[in-house]
TetR/AcrR family transcriptional regulator
Amino acid sequence: MSPRGREPLTRERVLGAALELADGGGFESLSMRKVAAAVGVEAMSLYNHVANKEDLLDGLVDIVFGELEAPEPGAADWKDALRRRAHSMRDVLNRHRWAVGLMESRVAPGPENLRFHNATMGCLREAGFGFREAVHASSVLDAYIYGFALQERSLPFDTPEEHGAVIEVKQAAIPDMTPFPYLVEVMTEMATAGYDYATEFAFGLELILAGLEP
Amino acid sequence: MSPRGREPLTRERVLGAALELADGGGFESLSMRKVAAAVGVEAMSLYNHVANKEDLLDGLVDIVFGELEAPEPGAADWKDALRRRAHSMRDVLNRHRWAVGLMESRVAPGPENLRFHNATMGCLREAGFGFREAVHASSVLDAYIYGFALQERSLPFDTPEEHGAVIEVKQAAIPDMTPFPYLVEVMTEMATAGYDYATEFAFGLELILAGLEP
DNA sequence: TTGACAACCTTACGGCGTAAGCGTACCTTA
DNA sequence: TAAGGTACGCTTACGCCGTAAGGTTGTCAA
């Protein structure tokens, strides 16, 4: 039980506060001191619940893995299962943009990580993919999904209006665009017609799914 | 001219030293003080040649863009031009693994960045792709390439022998793998047969290229 | 000769991750 | 009830980090 009435600090509370700070946009400035302040404690007290900052990040990444919709091994429509898996990953990675580069780079994979990858391989194997083919399929899908999330993360605007404004600023900052006529075309076209990431994502995803067969 | 005979420090020398440190594996611990020491100067002296650390990173990223093989607008075989572009990107991103997450996230794109993207769009437009289709094509290709590089970067081994060793360690660290039979299959299979990134990359690339037509 | 300027310097500030060790409230066992 | 152990919070301190402020010095143009 907790001393002095305050409800007890746990690893879950620490990770929850860190997740909130990271999602709030302050991932690159996320620090042990700020997490500690968010849970009303001094920095060093966190070390009773996480081994170090790396361990804290491992915990965050596994929470994100837990939010992903794992495909069901043995699903009737394996292609649709993979489609829904992909859209789930894009949604989740957009909620937690800081996580994009970290998902597959943890040395110590957490339980949700294992669960998710096991389900993906299971779905492919049960759909009739051979072992090598299943690895190929998950590799190309994940590369595309993470790569798309990476590109989507790096654009500093969300609405089409912001989009246009940013492009104008960028164009103004570059002294002479005449050597790059094809880029000028992209920028003017996008400034007027906007850009829809969801459509773009679906295009590439369907292209890849169409090329996959057991 | 330089005082005291020592050849003058330039932005290029600063970026060169920083690139060497980053490629040497110390990107996450790259600091202004270390770059300064590498060029025989105090940290604050760097600020005569770069605005700040962000500007230094912008410079590094543009150097990497400069190493990429840009496709030629109007190439006879546009598909092969894109294929060579993709392999060039994988090669370069493997030489500069720290750059993977940074390439498309710079607020201020450098001249080599502009040159490369202009060439890519030009190659697609001249191959007969409509404007929207060209954007689709470059989006799916780049997402795949960057995503693949991201996954390749995060694996902490290079040779098949190291690969096996790492897998054994990982498997030993996880208490009970029985809930994840499909993962066990992957790990044992890979430990014996190894894993070839080049083949894996080519598989996905050809799948995507096969699905692209003007 | 003078004065401006560029390039390198020292100093200092606030923030970082975390090692070391202290204090106190609680639980177990005698 | 008393004694000892343990869990969990705390303070302090170290060596890093990026960079603001401003000093020094060697080289030029006027």
Notes: Chain B touches chain A through 52 residues (CB under 8 Å). The domain at 11-50 of chain B is CATH 1.10.10.60 (Arc Repressor Mutant, subunit A). Residues 153 and 211 of chain B are 27 Å apart (CA to CA).
